[in-house]
């Protein structure tokens, strides 16, 4: 009997268009607001930061947006990504559940992030942009944009959250190998960075701060645009290749998920897998439970407020309606994963409010325990972020065992952990900090949410 | 026009048998000798170290040896491995050469090593073995055997060359994540290790020393066998899946290599790609140039002697005829790669002597330069070992340009460099040591070769 069950699609099955869930929403997203006027912003407000093609995708209501051939051509390097049945894990758990995972770690950068990095680099090059600034948390995004920049001849500068910059020197080396520049954030290179350093010289940094720095550089330099690796509608759009391929692969398996699971920091890998399934349901198709898993150390969906907030700490971005812990919230530096953002993709937040997505928060030690169990059965070491999805997958599979029912569970193994072995090392030696949350600190950041007329 | 050209085989095309080049040799290999008697050894001499199935493969003259179904089943996790045409690299070099590479970094451990680790773990389990001891240089082998041990329920202990143990803590963490035990070699755990430490407390270690430790543990413990990740005939045999797949994939490309290139430390990834092509030639097929690339810091094929020598520093192994720098040779610790073995696979050595393989030695800074050029065009960051193959591939492609001729070049991209970013970092910051060789030191190790009656 074969224990390895892998579903591979031929190259022609790389999707020809991205799937835009905005077309299928029962209620539209709340508008993005200008922080000064409180009025909805237009394309011109975003033009200093993004090429027009991406601004168009950000507000599009078309269900399908064609993937340009040069982007599909780069996708061919690693796509279609494999989908596996986790039989060895099922056997170890002795569960009646059928567990599947889509593996996005096969990209050169080792995660799902290149799906959008390649698209963004392409559209920037098409509009003559030669420099892009961005931020990165754990480094998966920064190295993915560095990779894409190398292919499309664009100079990439990355502001990397300081705690990760120090924890993960090899991620910086990876960005530099691809030819990008990487600095620790907050840095002395921007007003936003200097302001934070003046007040908190020892800050571990945060994605919110790093975004401020990257946005500031783009806003102040005509030859530079900005790029974000998650949260925004067009980013989630590009990730839809994951779920579209998975639907085809589940059909090859003659199966369909009862539950779809992904980890959620900004929301893009979760949405990439889940939205095509949720969209099918919204259009009258098969029901599916979608579970977004976040870290207990940064519980945006489970403890945050659904409100208008800034995307960054320096308040340079427009206001978006989303689940947020407050833009002044700095998640604790102890957490090993890259899921340390105060906000959440507006599309994911909206669908949580509509009851289409469940949210769950988990602690990191149980996540690493799940990562170990997965590595020792399925052979792939999951990135710390992805262990959150593995944890809840195992929990749901064990629940099937308890209840004596078989369910089909599909999760997104968004990346491998090769650059995160220091975190595994800390876990294995019992040194991984994992405390319960300080509620007072959460509440004070939430109290500082901006007052917005439109609310 | 498509720039990404990838040749994928369906799962059914995973080879059903390994290819054994011993069947096609114009002259047989010299026998392996017992160091005490100087007489050829028999299976019983090796029985304390290896399961009988592997001893049988070591001396087999059968051309095809069936791959057991449970081994093929694990291969399915990542095999068949892709073969790419490197069009972006060709364009950057502006060469008329057609460059292809077989990519073995898609395995869970990130290199070609699991091809044999899985087979070895399987045969050990079949014969009731519960513990395996081994050595590792850069860590690719140790983590691959740890991975295979996890799948087949075998406890794995790894002696890791001390300089790599210190340079690459994440490799150790990877082995531990898979459930293996990893100690720095020389260690205090064996007589061999203690003897070296007594004389050279600050030694960086070497594969020769680590082999002594691992062999000693297996020889002294009835429940423990020994496993080697390269050099031996059965290891090269298992790697033949690489070249067998590549032959099919080159046929898909309607092309055939004029030149086949691989890096060579112990010889297994080179042999894995090249032997099926060399074998076809030996059986009257198409001519092919095969180039084995070694580091100038450990120039076994280009500066060593073809002679009987021990496989280890502690002289616990039988004597094999191979190219060797002398078993007392300790390669300089500065070298970033895993190609630091004093000897070479007897089969590779033999074929060099027969004129079927060319050898070339290269310095590591030009190798990393080639690795960078490859990463920025093809997207994949090569392991330092594999950059040796990339270097000579680029050199040969540029020679095609100079000469105005098109040749087909195929090389083995044996693994990715995710665990070696510290070496890339050192290269990028100009801190990678790369000196010319101390000839006197080489000559003194060569002078200490054992006198063997049979020679």
Task: Describe this protein's structure.
The structure is a homodimer. Chain A is α/β, with parallel strands linked by helices and about 450 residues long. Chain A has a domain at about 5-15 and about 70-110 and about 235-455: Rossmann fold. The first copy, chain A, has 18 helices and 15 strands. Chain A has helices at about 45, 50-60, 70-75, 85-95, 115-125, 140-150, 160-165, 170-175, 190-200, 205-220, 235-250, 270-280, 300-305, 345-355, 365-380, 385-405, 420-430, 440-445, and strands at about 5, 15-20, 65, 85, 100-105, 130-135, 155-160, 180-185, 225, 260-265, 290-295, 305-310, 320-325, 360, 410-415. In chain A, the strands form 4 sheets. A 7-stranded mixed β-sheet of chain A has the order 1-4-5-15-10-11-14, sandwiched between helices. In chain A, strands 8-7-6-9 form a 4-stranded parallel β-sheet, with helices on both faces. Chain A is globular and about 55 Å long. The N and C termini of chain A lie far apart (about 60 Å). Chains A and B meet through helix 6, helix 8, helix 15 and helix 17 of A and helix 6, helix 8, helix 15 and helix 17 of B.
